[in-house]
Amino acid sequence: MIRSSLAGKSRRLWWVVLTVSVLVGAVGGGTMWWVQHSRQAASQRFVVTADQPRLYWLKVQRGQEMLVSDPLLTAPKDDPAAALRQAINLILSTPPSGLTTAIPNGTRLLNLELKNGAVYVNLSREFVSGGGSHSVIYRVAQVIYTASSLNPQAPIYLQIEGQPAPPIAGEGLVIDYPTTRRQFAQDVGLPLI
To answer: Cα 115 to chain center, whole Å?
Structure first.
């Protein structure tokens, strides 16, 4: 009788230890998963480092084209994606007096999203039509610089009709996917502004 009482207590103790071990493992594993995923989500958010987006245009000065920027003062402060959509749509329209654009007429913004810390800009196929290498470099620069104006270090995914941008206008300009303002400027020899 003593033996069966001890055997019963041993079995119960074994089940208690097993149950506690399983619970500790599940809670610990769940906690580790939550910590890892919450850190990953926080690191993938789009970080805004500027007060307002900037519009990048072209200006001819002393016979040379150069990128110049204007602040977008009417952009929504609490929605960076909406602010960048507004900025891109403005550079796709008629430039202000004294400035010009290299972006072909009829180019439309199909979508702009901020995800995983990056800016995804999807333009219509008109963006890749016509122009020489100089024009192509400046049109891409206008979009990349404007899209990265809230965070100049943000990766930019430039898409045409939902696909990574192809070499543009037969000029062979291949855009890294993604690219950054700094990388693009280095690749084409533009100043980093």
So the answer is: 6
Residue identified by tokens 């000029």 is 171
CB burial readout 28-54, b (16+ within 10 A) else e = eeeeeeeeeeeeeeeeeebebeeebbb
The 8-class DSSP code of residue 168 comes to B
Contact 145, 135 (CB under 8 A): no
- How confident is the model over 104-148, as pLDDT tens digits? 999 999 999 999 999 999 999 999 887 777 788 899 999 999 999
Number of neighbouring beta carbons within 10 Å of residue 173: 19
Which positions ≥6 away from 67 have C-beta within 8 Å?
A: 56, 57, 58, 59, 138, 141, 142, 145, 190, 191, 193
Which amino acid is located at 96 in the chain? Answer: P
Structural tokens at position 59:
């200006």
- Region for 75 from its dihedrals, namely left if φ exceeds 0, alpha if ψ lies in -120 to 50, beta otherwise: beta
Q: Which of 147, 32, 30 is nearest to 90 (CA)?
A: 147
Q: Could you tell me the two tokens for 52? A: 């307002």
